Automatic annotation (TrEMBL):
Residues 315-367 form the HNH nuclease domain. Residues 379-392 have a biased composition (Basic and acidic residues). Residues 379-408 are annotated as: Disordered. Belongs to the Rv1128c/1148c/1588c/1702c/1945/3466 family. This is HNH nuclease domain-containing protein.
Length: 408
């Protein structure tokens, strides 16, 4: 181990700046092979720990829980390592390829499914030679990407239990969310084929409906925006189950001093699930929200609880929907039910809550407007959109290249 760490220290000390494409790729290849070999050793050691009950030394029952708690692995990754370690004892061809660094840990985890107890029992009952399966699937892993390995394993398991009962698709569904220190969220999910098809259909409808001129978002960004929009639509519809007598909603708590201060005010407001956001973000969320005034006394005790007031009443929103017909940001075709009602002059700055001071904006473009972009309604009733530098975003025939701009 000392020699291994010394070698890693030497690698980390190398200056990569003088290297360029080919040289960097030549360096990367052996590193990936070393990573694969280390993954194989980790899996082999985890299996030895499991057999000897090593987790009990630290007061834990399983190596999965040890990897999560002591190794800080995610639930799915810890399960994959444990599964791989168990499988390598039954799959010598795979074990050899892993030890040589030719197969990734993820590929090994996929193939390991064929060595789980249920699959082994089915194979033995049908006279399937596991050595042949081991050789074939390892060969796929040596020459094909991870997605192809997953297909090959799925095909084998499907044929192995072709006449078995139809599995419950909900049993394999998983959704794990991890909240970071700044309140942002990353996650991982696993869906069966029908559940995945439903998700893709819902997201794709929003992705295609939300496409607009000069949209430079990546595919991943468009899908993420669609997911947020899907949640926003459901929350706005009011059809979700109630929580302790209240409809689910985004709850924001912010001090009046921070709310009226025009500065950004980072970390000034709190959300219902514990995240902190800036006062500027809180003002944006309040554009089309409900406001409740609570007067706090010494020790954080509420002294007065005012009436909840919706900033834009329903009749003003309906009028804005009829007038605007959807998001007014240049090039956007988002429908009215995607949109918030935005104050052209912020309500906290004295802007009136009436139709003349209202504009419909979808969630993404509402964010843009609160980050420097500007929408304005001309006397002829047409909307104009300007960038933070004051230039106008223009769309239409002949605008297929970079957007033309006119001075503000």
């Amino acid at each position: 181990m000392d020699e291994l760490f010394a070698s890693l220290d030497a690698l980390a000390a190398e200056d990569l700046a003088p290297l360029f494409g080919p040289a960097l790729l030549e360096r990367l290849g052996p590193l990936l092979a070393a990573q694969n070999r280390l993954a194989a050793e980790v899996a082999r050691t985890v299996r030895a720990c499991e057999v000897s009950g090593a987790a009990e030394v630290d007061g834990l029952k399983t190596m999965g829980s040890w990897l999560r708690g002591h190794g800080h692995l995610a639930v799915a990754e810890a399960a994959r390592v444990v599964r791989t370690g168990r499988a390598l004892a039954h799959l010598p061809a795979l074990a050899a390829a892993c030890a040589a660094g030719h197969v990734t840990g993820e590929q090994a985890g996929l193939i390991a499914r064929v060595a789980e107890p249920e699959a082994l029992a089915l194979a033995a009952g049908q006279g399937v030679e596991l050595a042949v399966v081991d050789t074939v699937l390892t060969g796929v892993a040596l020459t094909a990407p991870c997605a192809d390995v997953a297909k090959a394993v799925h095909h084998y398991l499907d044929r192995l239990d072709a006449d078995g009962p139809e599995p419950d698709p909900t049993e394999g569904r998983r959704l794990a969310l991890t909240k970071h220190a700044d309140g942002s969220i990353t996650g991982r999910f696993d869906l069966d084929v029908v559940g995945g098809e439903r998700l893709q259909a819902a997201l794709e409808s929003l992705v295609q409906a939300g496409r607009c001129a000069a949209d430079e978002r990546t595919r991943a960004q468009r899908l993420a925006d669609a997911l947020v929009q899907l949640c926003d639509n459901q929350l706005a519809a009011g059809s979700l189950p109630t929580l302790r007598g209240h409809k689910p909603q985004v709850l924001v708590t912010v001090g009046i001093e921070d709310l009226v201060d025009p500065a950004t005010g980072r970390g000034a407001a709190g959300l219902g699930f514990g995240a902190a956001i800036s006062a500027a973000r809180a003002r944006w969320l309040a554009c089309d929200g409900q406001v409740t005034r609570i007067v706090m006394g010494p020790g954080g005790v509420p002294l007065e609880h005012g009436r909840t007031v919706r900033l834009f009443p329903a009749h003003v929103r309906r009028a804005a929907e009829v007038r605007d017909g959807g998001c007014v940001f240049a090039g956007c075709a988002a429908p009215t039910w995607w949109c918030d009602v935005h104050h052209l002059l912020a309500w906290i700055d004295g802007g009136a809550t009436d139709l003349a001071n209202a504009a419909l904006l979808c969630e993404r473009h509402h964010t843009k407007v609160h980050h420097g972009f500007r929408v304005e309604r001309r006397p002829d009733g047409r909307w104009r959109t300007r960038r933070p530098d004051g230039t106008e975003i223009r769309t239409g025939p002949g605008r297929t290249g970079p957007p033309l701009a006119t001075a503000a």
